[in-house]
Structure formats: structure tokens, C-alpha cells
Amino acid sequence: MNLSRYFGHKTSFLDARLYHILSNGQKNKRLYMDDFVNYFYIPLFESPPVVKASFMFRMLDFDDDGFLHARDITDA
Question: For the whole model, what pTM was predicted?
Fold first, then answer.
């Protein structure tokens, strides 16, 4: 993903996290429009707040252990 053109600065951490979530942790997986809509667009724009919060939690839970630790945010 190349989000830097939208944010105006390097976003490699955000790019990596978003790709990890959209690809369900599979490396080098192609992401199709249906995947993008189902795993990104709908949760963030057409879902209740709890679904949005869950997505954001997944973005911050870098080690995918189901908990947020200081290292999830500071070691990025």
C-alpha cells in the first residue's frame, strides 16, 4: 500500500498494518476490490461504532495477541 501520497509523508508502519489486516496475515497476497470493500470500506464507513473500534484495535494490536501493550504502539 502506498498511503504516503494521501498523508503527505511516509506511512510504512500504517501501510504494513493495513496490508496485514486486509490480507489476513498472508504475505504477498493480492487484494481485490471485494476484499478492500469487505475488510476496509464497510467496517469503517458503513458499520456501527463498535465495528469501527474493533478495526482500529486490530490496527494497533501489532503482535495480534488480542491485547494492547505499550510495545504495540511504541515499537512500531
Answer: 0.63
